[in-house]
Design goal:
With 265 residues, the chain is an alpha/beta fold. It has 2 domains: 159 residues, Rossmann fold (3-Layer(aba) Sandwich); 77 residues, no CATH class. The protein has 7 helices and 10 strands. Strand 9 and strand 10 form a beta hairpin. Helix 2 packs across helix 3 and helix 2 packs parallel to helix 4. The protein is globular, with a radius of gyration of 19 Å. It starts with a strand and ends in an 11-residue tail after the last helix.
Length: 265
């Protein structure tokens, strides 16, 4: 299977008053076409920097980022992004918010087709009937569903999710995890998820990449067995418990609270 995303030997540092602050150090990540990779690691290790590099919003100091065989040299219209804060515009209806990328990204869709596309996505995530509401009239979970629709409306090849469910309560978060499986089945994409929630990572992703402490490198990669469509019961199986234990240990290693085991990258 071909890799749609390739991050090759990426190093990056931010300029501060005290000098350069290295955040990434020789990072290597590959995501196959149609794959879904979750990236976890200690706070401040450069996870959000990684998303900006993939989206072409910034360039690495050293190394390369490739999408579909092309080196990323600037913002890409084939990338959709969803963040922890939905940032919906209050003066626009939910339908108008979802359609916003189609006003920016070139599209062959007519205005009628754009509305049909947006309505289809809203129905897919359970927001049918809320098209004419304003963001303030929706709950946090509903706003995040609308944000997800907005990130997908232009049919991106790559969807970047930067802790989109982190500010939600546990029940809403788990409901949205299940919605994500439904969305990915209906709207195939190659996904990169940034999260601090290890349960979220093994529930949504095919592979979990653990970053080391800053400056981050690829410390460990966990393949999540293909168990087909997942429901919340999968999180309570012995296999899930074992994966979570491995990931927790790797996070402790990244935080310097546990020794690196021999033979473990």
């Amino acid at each position: 299977m071909n890799n749609l995303i390739e991050i090759k030997g990426v190093r990056h540092a931010y300029t501060t008053a005290d000098g350069p602050l290295p955040v990434l150090d020789g990072l290597e990540i590959a995501v196959p076409e149609g794959g879904f990779v979750a990236v976890v690691g200690p706070s401040g290790c450069g996870k959000s920097t990684l998303t900006r590099l993939v989206a072409g919003l910034m360039m690495p100091d050293v190394g390369e980022v490739w999408l579909h065989g092309e080196r990323v040299k600037g913002p890409r219209s084939t990338v959709g992004m969803a963040f922890q804060n939905p940032v919906l515009l209050e003066w626009r209806t939910i339908l108008q918010n979802v359609m916003l990328p189609l006003e920016i990204v070139p599209t062959k869709l007519s205005r009628k087709e754009q509305k049909e596309r947006a309505r289809y996505l809203l129905a897919l995530v359970g927001l049918e009937g809320f098209e004419d509401k304003r963001p303030s009239e929706l709950s946090g979970g509903m706003r995040q569903r609308a944000s997800l629709c907005r990130s997908l409306v232009h049919k991106p090849e790559v969807l970047i999710l930067d802790e989109p469910f982190g500010a939600l309560d546990a029940f809403t978060r788990e409901d949205l995890w299940q919605t994500m499986h439904k969305v990915k089945e209906a709207e195939p994409f190659t996904g990169v998820l940034i999260t601090h929630d290890l349960r979220e990572s093994i529930f949504l992703a095919d592979q979990v990449v653990v970053l080391s402490g800053r400056p981050a490198r690829t410390q460990y990669v966990l393949d999540v067995p293909n168990t087909g469509p997942r429901d919340l019961e999968h999180l309570y199986t012995p296999e899930a418990a074992e994966m979570l234990a491995v990931l927790r240990h790797q996070i402790e290693v990244a935080q310097g609270r546990a020794p690196v085991e021999e033979g473990v990258a």
